[in-house]
């Protein structure tokens, strides 16, 4: 019988606290404020920041993504600076497939925290956590080929580019087809 893994809802790196689940609601105001402040910049790459992103949508996003029963195939970590407790970004694990096990990783950093290495630190930690604690065999990222900053980040985390998927998705604002770079990190497979 396959049991669902129990993911840690709090992880810590040297500079960050990563939180998932209802505990994040204690930081709802700071998250909302940073989301609203960053929406204009992030909407180029992240679709939910499009479509008149406002306070109501920010709060709805926080409420839905912290409800662990909302979708069992998605786990979203909210990232906070350890010293200041400010919200700096998010990592989402989606399309979790326990048969392999594998998932897709997605990420973004709020404007005030960009360029400080927070996301590289968080991705490296979460990747190690999934491989060492939950024996993930594959973690992949799909990135718009024009998003050079995101590509640089995932490459710093030692993900390997497996190829380019042509006309594979719509842009964040849903206005045109895009090509995506497929990156992955894999572990050796041992059959028993």
TrEMBL record:
Pfam families for the chain: Acetyltransf_3
Family, per the entry? Belongs to the acetyltransferase family. RimJ subfamily.
- Boundaries of every N-acetyltransferase domain copy: 35-188
Keywords associated with the record: Acyltransferase, Transferase
- UniProt entry tagged with the keyword Transferase: yes
- PROSITE patterns per UniProt: GNAT
Q: Does the keyword Transferase apply?
A: yes
Q: Which protein, by its recorded name, is this?
A: N-acetyltransferase
Name the Gene Ontology molecular function terms of this record: acyltransferase activity, transferring groups other than amino-acyl groups
């Amino acid at each position: 019988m396959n049991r669902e893994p129990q993911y840690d809802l709090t992880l810590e790196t040297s500079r960050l606290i990563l939180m998932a689940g209802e505990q994040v609601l204690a930081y709802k105001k700071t998250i909302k404020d940073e989301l609203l402040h960053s929406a204009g910049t992030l909407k180029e790459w992240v679709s939910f920041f499009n479509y008149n992103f406002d306070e109501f949508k920010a709060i709805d996003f926080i409420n839905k993504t912290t409800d662990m029963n909302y979708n069992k195939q998605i786990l979203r970590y909210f990232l906070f600076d350890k010293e200041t407790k400010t919200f700096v970004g998010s990592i989402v694990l989606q399309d979790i497939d326990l048969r392999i096990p594998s998932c897709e990783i997605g990420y973004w950093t709020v404007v005030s925290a960009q360029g400080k290495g927070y996301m590289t630190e968080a991705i490296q930690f979460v990747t190690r956590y999934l491989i060492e604690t939950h024996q993930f065999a594959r973690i992949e990222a799909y990135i718009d080929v024009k998003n050079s900053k995101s590509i640089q980040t995932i490459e710093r985390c030692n993900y390997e580019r497996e190829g380019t998927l042509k006309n594979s998705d719509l842009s964040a604002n849903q206005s045109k087809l895009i090509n995506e770079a497929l990156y992955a990190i894999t572990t050796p497979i041992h059959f028993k």
